[in-house]
Design a protein that fits this description.
The protein is mainly alpha-helical. Among the domains are: 12-118, no CATH class; 371-443, Alpha Horseshoe (Serine Threonine Protein Phosphatase 5, Tetratricopeptide repeat), CATH 1.25.40. The protein has 20 helices and no strands. The protein has helices spanning 18-46, 49-70, 76-95, 100-109, 135-146, 153-164, 169-176, 180-196, 206-228, 239-255, 260-273, 276-279, 299-314, 321-334, 343-356, 360-372, 376-388, 397-408, 412-425, 429-441. Helix 1 (18-46) runs antiparallel to helix 2, helix 11 packs parallel to helix 14 and helix 13 packs across helix 14. The longest helix is centred in the N-terminal third of the chain and has 29 residues, at 18-46. 44% of the residues are buried. It comes from Kitasatospora paracochleata. Keywords: Sigma factor, Transcription, Transcription regulation. Residues 1-21 are annotated as: Disordered. Pfam families: DUF6596, Sigma70_r2, Sigma70_r4_2.
């Protein structure tokens, strides 16, 4: 759990008796499940995104103490919202004693209401703590604000995981292997930037929504990609991060049921995550695709991914970048082995992807597919074009692929040199060990 400034909550209850531990678990559970709704409702209530996030965190800190003493309330979410609303009113009171905004908020809430640990929520025991007709808009607006173009890509990721995903600064820092103060600084700077830019807490106009949706999707894609293949550290996978991206993608799909690329991204994530159980061995070492036991693949995830991919087709707009990548993942998911994979189709899909979302990584992956389809010489020529152009300089991906192609072409000395270069450039310990083993085997 985290405070408003991003630091970890630390109270005597954390190490106290079972009642305190039970309260802590209750607070964490409510926050992880309902954080987006809580912050979204508070942002609409206050009209101030940064204040909404801050008072929500203050309410969490108060809940740790009060629920340990009095027990969890009948409506935990209602309790947190009422407490946070009062904190917001206090903040407005401090800013201006007779501010009209404070008078309006105080009138809504009512000055005489008490908030106690065992009481019913202030909105009444049978009422939802938010308007059910607005909650979807609140959560969606929260995603768009957290991924606003005025923020840097790193800030978007941190803010999305914090206020939409409900992760603490410690969890985000651990996932991306950066210091906690760095994450805290990004979140604080992001909120200040949003305030300075006057970003309103609302859905963007319809004509802007689809354009800005790309930013939201790119954040979720970055989060999932880091979880599925960590760029650094001593673990190949960070499943918690990947599954958090999937959870957020499912939320987005429920809120935007007519956007094909939302379902394309969800399909890509589900189909890729389906292979997680077979991608590492008992010791955490990577297991290459050709060596994976496909019986260990998650068939439920594959079914969900294929269903999401099918949804993109029913919307009638054709496949976008995420839908095309999901189609490639579907080829792998449906193949009984590497040899029986439809590599010709994968080549065509990468060619289409290169036209709608060109990048050197797409070209590199297409070269791999070309080699698997039986044309390693042509694939090497494509990789060499990337090399000459200086694209992917400093990345271990290009020499890694080039080394594999040289092995296929019977040029072991050159292949070893490329694989050793890839190992030097690779920041992930697990991937590096695989590259070094391959290079040593060529000696």
């Amino acid at each position: 759990m985290a405070r408003a400034d991003g630091s970890a909550l630390s109270t005597p209850a954390d190490d106290g008796p079972p009642v305190a531990e039970s309260a802590r678990r209750a607070v964490e559970a409510v926050w992880r499940i309902e954080s987006a709704r809580i912050v979204g409702a508070l942002a609409r209530f206050t009209g101030d995104f940064a204040l909404a996030e801050d008072v929500a965190q203050e309410a969490l800190a108060e809940a740790l103490v009060t629920w340990s003493r009095d027990g969890a309330p009948a409506s935990p979410v209602g309790w947190l919202l009422a407490t946070a609303r009062r904190r917001a009113i206090d903040a407005f009171r401090r800013r201006a004693a007779r501010d009209e905004r404070y008078a309006l908020l105080a009138g809504r809430l009512g000055e005489g209401e008490a908030v106690t640990g065992g009481s019913a929520p202030p909105d009444g025991p049978d009422e939802l703590p938010w308007d059910p007709d607005r909650v979807d808009d609140d959560v969606l607006a929260l995603m768009f604000v957290a991924c606003h173009p005025v923020l840097s890509p790193e800030a978007r990721v941190a803010l999305t995981l914090r206020v939409v995903g409900g992760l603490s600064s410690e969890e985000i820092a651990r996932a991306f292997l950066v210091p906690v103060p760095t994450v805290q600084a990004r979140i604080t700077r992001a909120k200040k930037t949003i305030a300075a830019a006057g970003v309103p807490f609302e859905l963007p106009p319809a004509d802007e929504r689809r354009e800005r949706l790309g930013g939201v999707l790119s954040v979720l894609y970055v989060v999932f990609t880091e979880g599925s293949t960590a760029t650094s550290g001593d673990a190949l996978l960070r499943p918690d991060l990947a599954y958090e991206a999937i959870r957020l993608a499912r939320t987005l799909a429920a809120l935007l049921p007519d956007e094909p690329e939302v379902f394309g991204l969800l399909a890509l994530c589900e189909l890729t995550a389906a292979r997680f159980p077979a991608r590492t061995g008992p010791d955490g070492e990577p297991v290459l695709l050709e060596d994976q036991d496909r019986r260990r693949w998650d068939r439920s995830a594959i079914r969900r991914g294929l269903a999401a991919l099918g949804r993109t087709a029913t919307l009638g707009r054709g496949l976008g970048p995420y839908g095309l990548q999901a189609s490639i993942a579907a080829c792998h998911a449906s193949a009984p082995s590497v040899a029986e994979t439809d590599w010709e189709r994968i080549v065509l899909l990468y060619e289409a992807l290169g036209r709608v979302a060109p990048s050197p990584v797409v070209e590199l992956n297409r070269a791999v597919a070309v080699a698997m389809a039986g044309e390693p010489e042509q694939a090497l020529a494509q990789v060499d074009e990337l090399l000459v152009a200086g694209r992917l300089a400093g990345s271990h991906l290009l020499p890694s692929v080039r080394g594999e192609l040289l092995v296929r072409l019977g040029r072991p000395a050159e292949a070893r040199s490329e694989l050793e270069l890839a190992a030097r450039l690779c920041r992930n310990e697990r991937e590096r060990s695989v590259l070094l083993r391959k290079a040593a085997a060529l000696g």
